[in-house]
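User: I'm new to structure prediction. If I give you an amino acid sequence, what do you actually give back? Let's try with this one:
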Amino acid sequence: MSPLKKLSDRPPIHRISLQTVLIVPFVLQIFVAVSMVGYLSFRNGQEAINQLANQLVGEVNDRVHQHLDSYLATPHQINQINADAARSRILNLKDLEATGRYLWQQMQVYKSLSYIFYALPSGEYSGAGRWVDGGMTTIDEVSPRTNYQDYSYETDARGNRQKLIFKGMYKPLSEDWYLSAVRTGKPVWSRIYNWDNSPEFISISASLPLYDDHQKLIGVFGSDFLLSNISKFLKNLKSSQKGKIFILERDGNIVASSSEELPFVLVGQTAKRLSASKSSDPLIRGAITDLQRKIGKLQSIKSDQYFDVQLGRERYYALVRPWQDQYGLDWLVIVIIPESDFMEQINTNTRTSLLLCLVALAIATILGIYTSRWIAYPILKLQQASEVITNGELDHSVEVKGIYEIERLARSFNQMTVQLKSSFSELENRVAERTESLQQANLRLLELANSDGLTQIPNRRYFDNCLTKEWQRHLREQQFLGLVMLDIDYFKSYNDYYGHQGGDAVLSRVAQTINQKPRRTSDLVARYGGEEFVVILPNTSIEGAFKFAELIRESVLSLEIPHARSEVSKYVTLSLGVAVMIPNSENKPEDLIAKADAALYQSKKLGRNQSYAQNL
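Assistant: Good question. You get back a string of structure tokens that encode the predicted 3D arrangement of the chain. For your 616 residues, that looks like this:
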């Protein structure tokens, strides 16, 4: 009889066949995996949508707030400029001819404004603005020579009055912008109103009262701008075709929106402000209804409120955020984005994933059946042959338990498995130790590459990289980017007199002093080379950059580091050059460096120990 016994196609009774062990768990695992993948894919997709949607509505709301901060600051700035001009007697408020031309010139500069004007307690009034068809700038006057009627004049390209195009009654002292400023005695906003002669124009006025040294009212200055300009911005900003952005007053009236709907309705010939709850836009109306149902009165909203809007079968993500300024405006900015903007692709991916998983389940089941039949027979032969060879008893019948095809085979390989596990575990520990060492070394190299060894502040390489990044960011945001370049006065003479060790000590001390001054994390102090240092000041005007430069200069001077060879002071001093630019496509970061360097040169030329800023 052959040592290899005749193989049975079926396992003994009450035993589990190798074919069953291969097929059933494999199919069960694939089925569970398919179910879990589908479920987790949907859940993770939904959570990702919620996070992404909230992030997106927050970012859009941030941009609206930034625009409102900038746009609504301009009218009050113009009023302050005009008040200062009148207080310093640069502007004679009694000379309505000259002031009209002066206001006309301001209108050519500030395109976002619709009207700039002032009124005197006597009832006299002067203004310039664009209120007639075609956007032509006119000059208005109310005075004794006009019999206290409003005369509106067409102007030429230089602001000279040409011909009278309108005459009518206008009483500035009864207007809300005048009364509010006189009543409060400080800068204030008027209520939002429609123009009498053009009700399709909705404006708001910023006004500022001017008093003499005895607190007697000299006059009230005002600036108008159209709220439709805010609506235009919201339409251009809208990040979704189906979404909406709108701004409300606390009473629910619409200030501006990305919708094509006008923020007012005509009742006869009178324009009436439109409430969001009565909007013809179903999304705006539904959003305010859901918001009031959830929050209650709009006056109670003090911080960000995320909420959902259900319109039919469509779900929307929404965020309402209060916006306020120091002059009394208190608005609500609401951003709405539809869920469908995100769900369409995710639903498609989920369906595709489930279909692929089901196909994989079917293929795995078929392959499992054929593979198990293909594997079971050779393993059974190998098991019996191994037993015969190992024991030397070729005719001995081997009894197995459990999964009888592999029990003996598993016993033969157990020791080898233990050895392999031990070897792999040791190898993984060594790899982990080496990986950690390499990561620490890389971090140290990166720190050394970006730091100046002497002063322990960022070096020229790190400065160049940061300036490029800030330039690109300010190019997108169209904000001021400031740069201060400074130099230690007569440093070569200091080195010659005190030695290089003394010079190194001064460089290090000056660097650490400068590095303590920035208060924002985005500001950067770096060593530019030799005794030169630079400071990057994001979102900083020329005035702010100049004040910061002076702060640095005075801080170093206050150290009172002796300098026997200085020609301007007995202590170490600095010369500083200040430059500020709004990046555009026609310039580059090197232009900002060149301007700061030129300003530094001018500071030295003017006698050192000072700051110089071009265009200040």
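You can read the tokens as a compact description of the fold. Here is one thing that stands out. DSSP finds twelve helices and 21 strands in the chain.
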